[in-house]
Write a structure and sequence with these properties.
Layout: E1 2-5, H1 12-43, H2 46-72, H3 87-115, H4 122-144, H5 151-180, H6 185-212, H7 222-230, E2 237-245, E3 251-259, H8 264-282, E4 286-293
Parallel strand pairs: 3-4
Antiparallel strand pairs: 1-4, 2-3
Helix pairs in contact: 1-2, 1-4, 2-3, 2-5, 2-6, 3-5, 3-6, 4-5, 5-6
Length: 314
């Protein structure tokens, strides 16, 4: 006997609000990319140009995230039985990869600037970087809401916060150049900016790959979960246990649970208790629990899909 339990999100209004915030952030960022790029060329500042380049990737990231938010509201169908929730994960993967590529490019250009320092007009650098700081902080604030539990939005938020740090670093570099006349402060700021971007990109990339590989969420202790399941009244064994993430905040579980030879009513009560445990303690709202009598193989805790017993002749 198997039972399936899940909760549907009624987030249409929230998705529309998020999409509106993303569109506003996209417009502000796109307008400022042009201003900052012109200022970077006029000031001959790598820090400003690298920040403008990072801002340009933010425009792409915001556009992709907006599309993913819109797509995720589409209902499930026969070809997409989980709906389009993972569209945001794919966007997060693209965004994090873009961040890594941009940071490596900035590092290379900074190396060239250290080898051949160029004169930097500190006044333009300070003014443009200060304006960039305000614009980036404002756009980051717009998308911060719900970013903690949405990997798509978090990847965009980290994009924007990287720009906040980039702008601050560029402004400080401008001040240092104005006070000392040392132009190498400009590529030095770019090095710190690129390392910060790379660090943030790695965190997002690692999490998206875990989700796409259907790894067990890092905050779930499977041994403790098994012990918890065995405390449920009527449960005598657990096997073929799988826990994975559809998105960062939507988790799923499937398991075979061994019980005594009991009535359908008692079996339903056991399944209900398991669903309550998974939802309240582990945040798993999409669970499929198959009850089996003694005689199955309770020692195979994790199903091996390479086992010949899982392959059937047609």
């Amino acid at each position: 006997m198997a039972e399936h339990s899940h909760s549907h999100w009624h987030g249409g209004d929230l998705a529309r609000q998020t999409a509106s915030r993303l569109v506003l952030s996209l417009g502000l960022t796109l307008a400022f990319v042009v201003v900052e790029a012109v200022a970077g060329f006029c000031a001959n500042s790598l820090a400003l140009l690298s920040d403008a380049g990072h801002n340009l990737t933010d425009v792409i990231a915001l556009a992709l995230s907006w599309y993913a938010v819109r797509l995720s509201t589409q209902p499930a169908n026969s070809s997409k039985t989980f709906g389009y929730h993972r569209a945001g994960i794919l966007v997060a993967l693209v965004n994090s990869t873009t961040l890594a590529v941009v940071s490596l490019g900035i590092l290379y250009e900074a190396y060239r600037r250290f080898a051949s320092p160029a004169e930097v007009r500190s006044g333009i650098l300070i003014g443009a970087a200060s304006a960039a700081f305000l614009v980036n902080a404002g756009t980051a604030f717009l998308v911060h809401r719900n970013s903690r539990h949405d990997l798509n939005l978090r990847s965009v938020f980290l994009h924007l916060m990287g720009d906040v740090a980039s702008a601050l670093g560029a402004a400080l570099a401008g001040v240092a150049i104005a006070l000392t006349g040392l132009a190498w402060f400009d590529p030095l700021a770019s090095v710190f900016i690129s390392l910060l971007i790379l660090w943030n990109a790695w965190g997002i990339l690692r999490e998206t790959v875990d989700i796409l590989l259907e790894s067990t969420p890092r905050d779930i202790d499977m041994s403790q979960m098994v012990r918890d399941l065995l405390t449920v009244e009527g449960v005598s064994g657990v096997h073929d246990l799988h826990v994975w993430s559809v998105t960062q905040s939507l988790r799923a579980l499937s398991a075979h649970v061994v019980t005594a030879d009991i009535s359908t009513r008692d079996a339903t009560a056991i399944q209900r208790r398991i669903h309550e445990l998974m939802r309240h303690k582990y945040g798993i709202v999409h669970a499929t629990v198959q009850l089996e009598c003694v005689g199955c193989d309770p020692d195979a805790l994790y199903c091996d899909l390479n086992d010949p017993r899982h392959h059937h002749d047609e």
